[in-house]
Design goal:
Blueprint (H helix, E strand, L loop, with lengths): L15 E4 L10 H6 L5 E6 L5 H5 L11 E6 L14 E4 L2 E8 L4 E8 L2 H9 L8 E4 L3 H6 L15 H9 L16 H14 L2 E2 L8 E2 L1 H7 L5 H14 L11 H13 L28 H27 L7 H17 L3 H7 L4 H22 L19 H15 L10
Parallel strand pairs: 1-3, 2-3, 4-7
Antiparallel strand pairs: 5-6, 8-9
Helix pairs in contact: 5-6, 7-8, 8-9, 8-14, 9-11, 9-13, 11-12
């Protein structure tokens, strides 16, 4: 399991995926590829948030048989994909992992060492369709001493309030004593129970170690979103659900709450413009005055201007989603615009042109429909309830509605927060 030997010239033709820790390092390196000259190197990125069309490019043949395909990938290519023509794997031994601090209740992403099992999986990507080799950028000592045998189960690195709530709904009386296959830390379970208490989902009588579900908690357990989001739906109905929508439109306030919760339940739907500067003009000052260089410099300058113009357009389209007071309301803008584009059959093109991630917004759209159906079934017998439907008629929130939506979001996301500062 030591470092791989240096790649030899004249090895048989084939591609190579380079393993990077995160998507930032795997962004499109088209500018660098152009500077490589007519050498036959085709570099492609591969990560989860890459648009589907760009992801599909790794399955297409290279521009010519003389081109060597290099795929710069995150661990999305570790187990789920078999890339054709890949004979060599360069493994950096790192991965960007989401971790959760149960004491502070804050999630963050950290670059960590992979496990030995993941290293073996990465090595297995080499030569799936023929003989191959894996080059590891770390020593055998690192493999045996710093890499754990297996990746830690997710239950140890994720917030547990959703699991806690569902187990309570199933009638488990004392979660701390439940025989988990991999038991989480007791303080993590206690923190989850405390948060559910702050949200009003469980109530504890005097002398009880763990409380039972309240009527609010029972309602929250029926919704396919996180506990904060489910409380937002039920609280939002009280604050905004009495507004009436016109015929052919969604019910005003409650439709906004459902769209907002669906938008917050998925990852960020915005595609951030590539902030790196292009390399096309970095060579213009070399060899000035030599024959033929002026024309090449002009071409480079024109290419740089076109690239800068395209980048400025991307930034302008990205900034159209900005909201001056709330990132949550910025997502609501994108959700509403996507719904309108979807109704006209052009959602994929709309997302490409407006710096939005189409698969993410597609999942948000489906979740809106699911939440609307669940709420309709739950409240349809109430006389004042108007059924919800996902239609393109949802209007942007009024200033009063924006204020109410911010209150709903802040009320639930501040639950369980503790100020640990000392005087």
């Amino acid at each position: 399991h030591g470092q791989g030997e240096a790649a030899r010239e004249g090895e048989e033709e084939g591609g190579s995926p380079g393993r990077r820790a995160g998507a930032e390092e795997g962004e499109n390196r088209e500018d660098e590829r152009k500077q490589d000259g007519e050498g036959g190197v085709d570099v492609l990125p591969l990560y989860a948030m890459l648009p589907p069309k760009a992801q599909a490019a790794v399955f297409l043949p290279p521009p010519s048989p003389r081109h060597r395909r290099i795929v710069v990938a995150t661990n999305v290519a570790e187990t789920s994909l078999t890339l054709p023509g890949i004979l060599y794997v360069v493994d950096c031994g790192r991965v960007k992992t989401r971790t959760f601090d149960h004491a502070s209740g804050v999630s963050r992403y950290e670059v960590q060492w992979i496990s030995q099992a993941s290293a073996d999986q990465r090595a297995g990507r080499a030569g799936r369709t023929g003989p191959g080799h894996c080059y590891r950028l770390y020593s055998s000592a690192v493999f045996s001493q710093r890499l754990s045998r297996f990746t830690a189960p997710e239950i140890l690195n994720l917030p547990l309030e959703d699991v806690f709530l569902q187990m309570k709904a199933l009638g488990v009386p004392l979660i701390e004593n439940f025989p988990f296959p991999t038991p989480p830390e007791k303080k993590a379970l206690q923190a989850a129970g405390a948060l559910l208490g702050d949200l009003g989902a469980i109530g504890r009588r005097e002398g009880e170690r763990e409380g039972g579900l309240t009527s609010l908690g029972q309602g929250m357990a029926t919704l396919p979103v996180g506990v904060r989001s489910s409380k937002m739906l039920l609280l939002g109905r009280k604050m905004l659900g009495r507004e009436e929508g016109k015929e052919g439109e969604e019910k005003g306030g409650m439709a906004l709450v459902v769209a907002l919760v669906a938008g917050l339940s998925e990852r960020d739907p915005f595609v951030f413009p590539d902030g790196r500067e292009g390399g096309g003009g970095t060579r213009g000052g070399e060899g000035e005055g030599e024959e033929g260089e002026d024309e090449a410099g002009e071409e480079d300058e024109e290419e740089v201007l076109l690239r800068e113009k395209a980048r400025a357009l991307k930034l302008e389209r990205f900034r159209q989603w900005h909201h001056p007071t709330s990132d949550a309301l910025a997502r609501l803008r994108a959700v509403g615009a996507y719904t309108y584009a979807h109704s006209r059959g052009g959602s994929a093109k709309f997302c490409r042109e407006n710096m939005l991630h189409s698969p993410t917004l597609g999942r948000i759209y489906d979740l809106r429909k699911q939440l609307s159906r669940i709420l309709n079934r739950r409240f349809e017998k109430q006389p004042s309830y108007m059924p919800l439907h996902v239609t393109p008629g949802m209007k942007p929130p009024t200033p009063a509605q924006e204020t109410a939506l911010r209150q709903v979001v802040s009320h639930e996301w501040m639950a369980g927060w503790k100020d640990d500062r000392r005087e």
